[in-house]
Design goal:
9-stranded mixed β-sheet
């Protein structure tokens, strides 16, 4: 029995605490913030010791091992002191992986992680596989595992989760894309963020597979200097792959061993180039795990977009209202703007994480008729697009932003909430932002 201390009592930390308790460890949970009631109830139910609003140094530094929640930076004082004492510091993913024999499918990338992980889960589930979706989406890996083991876990993995993963082996590692994001966590050095993403390949063997987007320059430059012993399979919208997936004549082709198939893009239940890429990665994963092509194709015709990601809220007086609150960086917003042909009234803004808006200038100039800046500080957003958009207005609440958009919208227009920024200046998180958008829209 080990003395396990868990820092952070959100989804990840609470899940780790429950699993650790069920594995007969001595468990203590510490959070410098107030613990949400739903997590506090779980800790109380399992009779797990915890504290909130503080980190008790003496108790924490008495740990055999510390499980750190992903949102906690590595350089806080208590962790620096723990390292000096040679206390092991790991992620909840690393901890949970010790207690399963399941096949692990890991999905990372700056954008598309949740959709791709959800799509893979949908395909596996539709094919009758014993599969669980966890990680950075839905339940934490540890909490799901505390309830029961599965044959397959599909794990959405952020760079923060990968940072403290050391011995976990992923049977399938998927890297969707890399664009600058969370650079404030990485001293504004892209190379450190790239290194964190590539940790998804740690411990893979020749029996495992690495699936990656071959059109991403950052990924390809990194691949060029690495040696691989696992199988590597690309997907692309630019080039044909003898073994992988590609786009040609508006069809997705998947070539994996002898089980080849193709599918018209218009038969997908979703739209946008980004979702074609997500479908490619998902289809390769399914093919490699012996799911028949008929099941894969069926799944891609009935997959539903995840909440807060290009989510169609409703159509009012000929105007579509789209909730893309999960777009917390510029690259993600590029995909959203790219998905619509009609004039866009774009609601954007929040906490800027060092955004470079150059990527979306052409699309904004071409498609956006009005920009509604939703933030406490809109100066950077206004400055970036003052020459691209004829009408720019400001709002400091979701109700104000939606009403401004409603006043400007004409039949055939799209009102798109795709912030390109974090939500924490005005909202609790991106879910809160998206839910407020939907509520206000439905009350129009």
């Amino acid at each position: 029995m080990a003395r396990v201390v868990i820092l952070g009592a959100g989804e990840s930390g609470t899940g780790a605490a429950v699993l650790a308790m069920k594995k007969n460890h001595s468990v203590f949970v510490s959070d410098t913030n107030k613990i949400k009631n739903k997590y506090k109830e779980v800790l109380l139910h399992h009779k797990i010791e915890f504290e909130e609003g503080m980190h008790s140094e003496k108790v924490i530094l008495d740990a055999d091992e510390i499980i750190k929640s992903p949102g906690i930076p590595n350089n806080i004082e208590i962790l620096l002191k723990a390292r000096k004492k040679n206390i092991s510091i790991i992620s909840e993913i690393e901890f949970a992986a010790r207690y399963t024999e399941a096949k692990l499918i890991g999905v990372t990338g700056t954008n598309g992680k949740t959709t791709t992980a959800s799509m893979i889960f949908h395909i596996f589930n539709h094919a009758g596989y014993d599969v669980c979706l966890a990680g950075n989406v839905g339940k934490s890996f540890a909490l799901a595992l505390s309830e029961r083991d599965y044959k397959y876990f599909v794990l959405e993995l952020s760079s923060f989760q990968l940072e403290d993963m050391f011995s976990t082996r992923l049977n399938v590692a998927i890297l969707l894309n890399i664009t600058p994001d969370h650079l404030d966590r990485y001293n504004y050095e892209l190379s450190k963020y790239v290194d964190a993403k590539f940790r998804i390949l740690l411990n893979q063997t020749s029996e495992d597979v690495f699936i990656y987007w071959a059109d991403d320059e950052v990924i390809m430059s990194e691949i060029a200097v690495k040696l691989f012993h696992q199988e590597i399979i690309p997907f692309s919208v630019k080039n044909e792959n003898k073994n992988g997936a590609y786009l040609k004549n508006n069809q997705m082709y998947v070539n994996y061993n002898s089980d080849k198939f193709n599918m018209f893009v218009e038969d997908f239940s979703f739209k946008g180039t980004h979702n074609i890429l997500n479908a490619m990665a998902s289809s390769i994963t399914a093919s490699r795990n012996n799911i028949r092509k008929e099941k894969i194709k069926e799944s891609l015709t009935n997959f539903s977009n995840i909440e807060h990601r290009l989510e169609m809220v409703c159509k009012i007086r000929g105007v579509e209202y789209i909730n893309d609150s999960k777009a917390t960086n510029v690259n993600s917003t590029w995909y959203a703007l790219e998905s619509y042909k009609n004039p866009i009234i774009w609601i954007a803004g929040g906490i800027d994480k060092g955004n470079n808006y150059e990527l979306i200038h052409p699309l904004v100039k071409q498609k956006v008729k009005a920009l509604i800046c939703l933030s406490l500080d809109n100066s950077k957003l206004k400055e970036a697009f003052s020459k691209d958009v004829g009408l720019i207005k400001e709002a400091t609440s979701m109700e104000e932003a939606v009403n401004l958009a409603y006043q400007e919208a004409l039949p055939g227009d799209v009102v798109l909430l795709s912030p390109a920024c974090s939500s924490f200046d005005l909202f609790e998180n991106y879910e809160d932002r998206g839910n407020q958008f939907k509520k206000v829209v439905m009350n129009l």
